[in-house]
Amino acid sequence: MTERPRVFVTNSMSGLQVPGGGSVLAPLHERTRCEVWRQPGSPPRHALREAARDCEGLLCLLTDSIDAELLAACPRLRVVSSCSVGVDHIDIAAATTRGIAVGNTPGVLTETTADLAFALLMAASRRIVEADRFLREGLWTPERRWELDMFLGRDLHGATLGVIGLGPIGRAVARRAGGFGMRVLGWSRSARSVAGVEQTALERLLECADFVSVHVALTPETRGLLDAPALARMKPGAVLINTARGGIVDEAALAAALRDGRLAAAGLDVYENEPIAADSPLIDLENVVLTPHIGSASIATRARMAALAVENLLAGLDGRPLVHRVNP
Predict the structure, then answer these.
(1) Is 274 an annotated catalytic residue?
(2) Residue from 69, 203, 221, 274 carrying the catalytic annotation
């Protein structure tokens, strides 16, 4: 009888279940010799290397660094399956050179991430977090029961939304904007045509949009795309939303623009370094809504992502095409 392949999973996924109940990792336990990291957080570098050293398969998260050094230390590895859409935590070139298939989980989180982008847009524009804090801190007193200029925000209806990146998530955000009666400008490197979206140059988008939402992948070309000069082009009083990747936006320049009032607000789910540093200039700004990379964090979506990651891993171990493969 053929010995079952060894795999390592960097997260227990204990809070996720497949429809009808049961662990999302059950298929791996049934068909492989599966070791799971059950401690909080990601496995430290040395622990990941030791656990994956003799494995044929690795199921990881975007918080795990799968670089060339790690891949070289795992000579039996045949497939890496990441429970994420982005794969900038994996050295794709090194994996390809070693003949290792790399899978990811696109598609399943599109609508959920678009929901969060719009939630951040609404929370930032209507100052929801500021108002919530005001109430909880006991500042809503009889003397300040209602004021004409209290927590004045910005209307979405009739405003212009600029969508940077017209992939699946960007298009989903554009559809939501249509429901609010917003005019939608769009820019993408591929000049993709999208119904209901007016294609324009990035510079014009920044100059005309009341709200800007970022949805491009992080690549060498998009790193620092919204730097200080780009942010300076934005319409005064505009609101910036980023649910893509932190490295796309220059955080120091963004903080400065928010602090001096050139930009009205921002809503961020991603950061240059994660977790965000305690001394980040963004932390103390009241006009920023910050969430800890929860774009895909709905019960159903995270379970679908995990199930797809498992399916990719098993396909690679069986020598079958991955459902979603990143490298050729």
Answers:
(1) yes
(2) 274
